[in-house]
Write a structure and sequence with these properties.
Bound molecules: adenosine monophosphate, magnesium ion
Order of helices and strands of chain A: EHEHEEEHEHHEHEHEH
Radius of gyration of chain A: 18 Å
Shape of chain A: globular
Largest sheet of chain A: 5 strands, parallel
Oligomer: homooctamer
Structural class of chain A: alpha/beta
Distance between the termini of chain A: 24 Å
Number of strands of chain A: 9
Chain lengths: 213, 213, 213, 213, 213, 213, 213, 213
């Protein structure tokens, strides 16, 4: 999985010093680096200690581009999200895709309570090679998207909501039991994981295309 | 709550003999009787012991009509359900409304995975005075319906589904955290409760209408 | 749902800057604005950035009244709550009703452990067109109210309590399994949702009244 | 704990043969025996194998009275229950009290949805030395009783209910978080345990009375 | 419940200002006041605003003694706790008992992992009229105490522990399913509730004694 | 989603009569039919009522092939499962893939407790275009497979196991929190859903291939 | 792990035919076979199909001894259990130890509610090289045993109990949060696993002993 | 358990003053002291108040060595952990073993997503007398280790991870239901408990060795 693509460091549960140490080690070998789930305080240290490291506060990521990002495929991913509060997860997903060379369109603020906004985007959805759906609360958006189109759908439950949302449990259970067939699900708030799942699909497809005369 | 409307017996957790005893007592006073959540075996006993008692196997109800059912209101309820497996709950709801004098339309098999079927019914939804939405699995239907129309929506999660549906928990949490504003929820599989909630709305409205010159 | 009534912004999960941006956009079109679940720090920013915006710390809301609030109906809502700790949720509900043109009475501090206080308010309950019951801990208040009167009851479990209250779970399960028939429930701490559910009922009733000669 | 009072065998999780063996051993020494949570099939074996053993199907108990039951105290227990479906637990409790020499009154079918029935029984409640409250669904009855009177209240959540009742969890959490002060709780469906808790209270009181000149 | 005994204010979920207002109102009528679950910051305000109010930081209580505390009974309560971390709950219980006129012995630091310490206290346990057992983690202490003596046992699960303790859930479930018969349980960390349950027992006993010639 | 591919009926929650009615309707139009989660009793009725319907007891499916199955792609799916008890889910997945024209290899009985068996199959895994991993208990197999290869991995937790497996919850949580990046998950026991997710990937790939000159 | 010791087949989730096939295959190579979690119906088939296979109904095991069982160590295991209802798990553990050549003493019916019975067995506990503690309900027995002695303690929560026992959850959480240091835990009802954990300890010790001159 | 080995104080839930008091008391008798789960603020107080006390911030421990640590055994423990975020738990375990005289090797950063790193360490694993496996997220590492070697395996789930990891629940359930036989489990994040379980094994072994001529 490792050549030409960034090494990814999960920032959560590590001290700033640990992140810096690992990132420096990787940077020395010329590799690109993506740090996820890094809060503002840690990010400040990481950015100040490593030349060229950049921080995206919304995405809670730090990125270091030592070598040009290699485009993975010309297939587009549609990155769909329900509301403003889902932005941190959506942007973590976006940064991960960008660093891994994936092309994508943002289709944001299309929660199911205002169905017309989603329906207007249907053509974009149908063109996509993979769809990532990010939603909190009851997570119904993935069922509706999965019913509209025939494309691989990767659903990301978010911890947006309160009370019976139980920190993403409601959305997670809802996406796993979706009445739309063949929806797949990643962990709560795991924008990174959804991006990586899309990469697995696009990479296998690219490999297959190369091996076909 | 009790004049002119049926007395309701919750059949679950009672023996057939107990149900018969309570129902006979009520019948003697000329009252209509509705027994809910009564399985086939108990229903057979109840029907054979009480003259005029009828069994709806799909709804799991027994009903006895000793006096004519008094129409409650001319406002129509829309009874919306997602799939075939939700029928027992939907029919329990229907039988309860029928016995309580509520007029309603059935809008069945309109799960969100096939959105067009629901959208075709939009006029019916907009005409309704109250909408009851019955769905299992992820229960997304109530969010979509609640986003489409402005009418009171009573959502009934059902225990339809398996695995992460956890016997209706996924649908229940999903409906409670719906991104559509002002959806209300009753207990899992509680078709009776949804009907009764509609009755509360219609009865208050009828009373208000009567007291207006 | 949108003409003449305020646009609602869910403050939680948004930055102060995001709230300001959305609210300014709405204000420019002359619309009233209600921001819910906004903490003191964000509220300070929102109030200082937007002319005429007001903050209710108890209700955790900010409100902007650009145009006069249109009365929705002459039916009164009874807003019932169990204890002092439920006030933030009750006041969120009150502010939402106020902004949406609903008339209501407060019936506060009538928890079931002191039944007489509730029973003294029975006439007020019977007059109401809709009752909203707000209670934490075991949430028994909605069962008692629902047994006393025949009116639509919307129950709001709150996260008040500790230990086995599990942040509102005990009250939520209790309200969903209420032995009083036809109680409906919204999400934990969702005072806004209860107000909106009442609005759905009152709006449908007003519409029906208008269409009746 | 053991002289003059029956030895108790928990029937659940034991084979009929194991119950018979233990009961015979006890009977040989002249002791009274109470078997709880014994289903009809096992009870049939136990009754047929042991001379004088009696079966109460509603209470799911078998009892053998080899020596006269010694009255424990002249203080009365009030055994309060919410509905017909709580009868098996209430009768298990009753049989246990009877075998342990406790005098008690049954106050049944006084669920909080029909408050007047409970209020009519207030004098009986106030006279009692201990109150046992048995209720399923949301278990609100113990809060109301605990608010009405000053007596020790032992609450028994039952598994009556469906859906969000989660086999007694809703009632159990509700009773543990009761807003009435000083309510104590035993396990779901544990009528036996409630009776025994009452016995502990009455026995300590009797002992204290004896040691006072 | 209210004459001669303190009025109790649950501090949690109330602002310092609200607590002060309620306490002042009560103090004006000459009543004693007990505030529970009040953190250091609120307590500082309450103490500085109300003449004579005292703060117990360990117990997280504030108390105001306007009139002499009336002794409730000469029966002693044994207040048993497992470890040092359970002290805040134990002391909340102690302060509540003190304010309500209950005499009690502290038997602390007798967790079941060092059984001999508990066994040395057996005489004290046997003399008690009521035993309150306070323990976190697995809460086994109440089973052992309940097996040793015949006295009423009120078990208080605490939130002490981490991981699978799940904030007191492990202890709570353990105490509810205790293999010792007739143990009763109050909410997690509810030292107040246990004291009040003891008061119910002692008060009923005192009343009975008075009414006996 | 619907041309040339079978219509799928979820057998669970439907009566045999309902399944027969739906299947007959579909069969009349010449469509292939797949019924999933159908127990032996219902399957017997379905097979006897519909000419050409076949039952796979292990897969709990009934299938009707009215028109030849159209091959979907020449990309192979690797169907990996942990143990013998996972067979029903694995075979449901296999039957679904067969009916949808997917080519696949079975790699069974390669649970992580015997790692060498899995490692021997590594070449087969690397050749696959999609991998479906089916495992119960702790579900660790998907993490190991996801770490070995770069291909899309769809994980199916099964309800195999007892105790802390909690009917598939342990495996489901384990797969969602996998330390291998980009694993996606479907519902517990949802062999059908995994097959359909693979179909979404293969179909999108086939469509892309067709549209490339 | 496999020479000279029996191959173990987990009977649950396999058909009788599958068990027979696997067992026959193993038997042919002269190996001993242990089948666990096999119900009476399957066991009857297995016993009738395989010469020499024996069924222990209490332990729910079938065993085939083709070659003599090799004693593993002269260190004794103490197999401690709380009550009669724990016997099936205790006997599964016993049969597994027997088949694996472990010597053990049974110390049964020593639940903590009757502490003296356990204390009488203290010498046996102190002599043991490993202690296995099997208990349901609140599972307090392992804390007490772990506090009494210094030996490795393997705790097995059982599903014995009802209500808040939640099928072994209470005991499992209790054992995991034991206040006695260094207790280890296996899955609910996993008598087999506890035996195997003991075998790991004894085997490592035997190996170490052999490699010491 | 107590001679020659350190007394252990659980720092969590105690004030710095309480820790200091207990530690001073122990130090006065010349005993070694280990304080676990002590945060930086408390540690600063403890270190400044007690001569010779040392703080390990990573391990969250304070240690006082008044007398030389007595080596327990020449058997080595392998301390295996999955990732950098598990370090605090692993180091708590390491410090506990060091204080108790256990010799051990660290085998860190060998999570199952990169299997080769673990396989390279196989010889070290096979040499160990006890293996402690520390892992968060899905906790699969213990299944793989338990399948590779025959040695006692003590698994420690950690709270590392987010979303469906539910603070260590996913890892805990996964380890308890491991498909590798005879794995034992301690509480989430309980590095201390795992070390102590290893000590129980090594101590019993040392005692047995001593008593063998
Ligand atoms: N299906 C049902 N679900 C929930 N509550 C019900 C149901 N059917 C009846 N009830 C309620 O149960 C009451 C009757 O309870 P009971 O007196 O036990 O028969 C009715 O008045 C209703 O309030
Ligand atoms: N306190 C609240 N609780 C639940 N939903 C709310 C609340 N306040 C606002 N909403 C809903 O959130 C929507 C706004 O979401 P957003 O577009 O993210 O600001 C509103 O239209 C309401 O439907
Ligand atoms: N620590 C506590 N835990 C649970 N309930 C309490 C506690 N302290 C006081 N209460 C109860 O809360 C009531 C006061 O509630 P409030 O009127 O909101 O102050 C008292 O009468 C007690 O019944
Ligand atoms: N009662 C049991 N509980 C848990 N695991 C078991 C049990 N019996 C056998 N096993 C494990 O299951 C494996 C056999 O699984 P299988 O190959 O599916 O028969 C054995 O090697 C054991 O590791
Ligand atoms: Mg929005
Ligand atoms: Mg359908
Ligand atoms: Mg109050
Ligand atoms: Mg009734
Ligand atoms: Mg201590
Ligand atoms: Mg196998
Ligand atoms: Mg026994
Ligand atoms: Mg790493």
């Amino acid at each position: 999985i490792r050549q030409g693509v960034p090494e990814v460091i999960l920032g959560e549960g590590k001290t700033a010093a640990q992140i810096v140490a690992i990132a420096k080690e990787l940077a020395r070998t010329g590799q690109n680096v993506l740090v996820t789930r890094v809060d503002d305080a840690k990010a400040a240290v990481v950015v100040s200690e490593i030349e060229g490291m950049k921080h995206s506060p919304m995405a809670r990521t730090c990125t270091l581009e030592r070598s040009p990002i290699v485009p993975l495929s010309d297939t587009k991913v549609a990155l769909v999200s329900a509301g403003t509060s889902d932005l941190p997860v959506a942007e973590e997903c976006a940064e991960t895709m960008r660093m891994l060379g994936v092309t994508f369109d943002r289709i944001f603020d299309v929660g199911v309570a205002g169905l017309h906004r989603l329906l207007h985007k249907r053509p974009l959805l149908e063109e996509a090679g993979v769809i990532i759906v990010i939603a909190g609360m009851e997570g119904a958006l993935s069922s509706v998207v999965g019913g509209l189109v025939d494309v691989p759908v990767i659903a990301v439950p978010t911890s947006v909501g309160y009370g019976a949302a139980f920190h993403g449990l409601a959305a997670m259970l809802g996406m796993l039991t979706s009445c739309a067939s063949g929806i797949t699900v990643v962990n709560i708030d795991n924008g990174f994981g959804a991006a990586f799942a899309a990469v697995r699909i696009l990479r296998a497809r690219a490999r297959a295309a190369r091996s076909t005369p």
